[in-house]
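Q: I'm a student working through a structural biology exercise. My instructor gave each of us a protein and asked us to get a predicted structure, then write a short paragraph describing it. Mine is Cryptochrome/photolyase family protein. I'm not confident about reading structure output yet, so if you can add a plain explanation after the tokens, that would really help. Here is the sequence I was given:
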Amino acid sequence: MRLRLVLGDQLSRTIPALEDMDRAQDVVLMAEVAEECAYVPHHPQKIALVLSAMRHFARALEARHVRVRYIRLDDPSNSGSLAGEVARAVAELRPAAVIATEPGEWRLLQAMKGWEKALGLPVEIRADTRFLCPRPWFRHWAEGRRQLRMEFFYREMRRRSGYLMEGEEPAGGRWNFDAENRKPLAADLKPPAAPRFAPDAITREVMALVAERYGGNFGSLEGFNWPVTARDAQKALDHFITDRLPHFGDAQDAMAEGEPTLFHALLSTSLNLGLLLPGPVCEAAEAAWKRGRAPLNAVEGFIRQILGWREYVRGLYWLKMPEYRELNALQAERPLPWFYWGGETSMNCIRQVVGQTRDLAYAHHIQRLMVTGNFALLAGIAPAAINEWYMAVYADAFEWVELPNTHGMAIWADGGLMASKPYAASGAYINRMSDYCAGCEHDVKAQTGQGACPFNYLYWDFVARHAAAFEGNPRMAMPLATMRRMAPEKLAAMRREATRFLAGL
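A: Happy to help. First, here is the predicted structure for Cryptochrome/photolyase family protein. I'll explain a few features afterward.
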């Protein structure tokens, strides 16, 4: 008998740990453990999502006559740690070996590598084959490159996969239609309602347990609406392809009050848990384009997020860990402001995104990058603090995908390893891409004085503060030149405003 471990984000029937399984003898171990529920103060919806999806997956395995040893969080015998539950299962079941799939987080893989010695029996850790880019291939692609740009990786992945390719050329004659995907939400365009996945008895039981143990964490369990089974995840995909994908491209960077999901896919939780696989998701989007049901700019933009960004950040994470987590290129050291945890703020854009995050455990990529991430970048928030926040508050956050996106893209802590320039912006960008500024007590057009938008003076203070570090960066040449043409007294006034504001955080 072999003990086969399935983690909470490995809920796929094709997970390598379940390959070549002897159903008559082998036992699948799944364990809800306090250690994983609490290493950051996770949003209650995230904990409930993972635990409910695990219980549904275990039930599906049992329906296929698989022997499952399932340890619940409230089991009196629960040791509280994954290592403890593996050791307990080994002691009680005496398997010949433990078989696992490599986890998504570096810290957990390092712990698992010590299990063989600790347990005194073979522990086989198999490569995770659910991704479109194997880790060895990414290492090969990155070898010798001075810059690891996602765009070039994405083009190679398009060639490898054949998605949106016409022979050797990209469909439509262009690799990237991003320039067409930067429009604010049109006034006459109403996004469809998100699909509903009402909690069943299993999910309600989990929610009660989470409320009891983690109800004090940031976030509300009310309105829980995540797919927790492969069947519901497929329904979510079908809904996106039919009702959202046709308008996804044009409005994918837009933000609007009262429209938290717009035309976004809402599939990241299902992909990151393994309820959906990236290949079939990309194929469904490509098929919609081929049938004339979605425009190329929308389909290319969506496939780029999965085939490009998602695979790229995973490759970068495993290539550069553990040193990557410690990088702090801009020497940012400020504590995280309390309004990230739901405290009051006069900035409507922050208030909208944080409130939405509290209620839904969700914000789309531009809200994360250009509102909460942009503020953290401009204000010099310590990387560890903002990374912990993103890990804690979003239902789709797992370190392999969260850390590079936050560390490398949002706050530029890696000094340009991932992104060629910091994604820094003043209030003008937020005003152009959203309706947040219309409902704000700050004046988005004012750079100094009573009521001026903090993003404006923080932006120019950021550019001035790091001017020496940005010398030689061609993508920062324009803001640096603009700053140097600015009247010295104007720049000085904005920097005084920034100092005053930051001191008050």
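A: Here are two points you could use in your paragraph. The mean pLDDT is 96. The longest strand covers residues 27-31. It's a good idea to check both against the output above yourself.
Q: Great, thank you!
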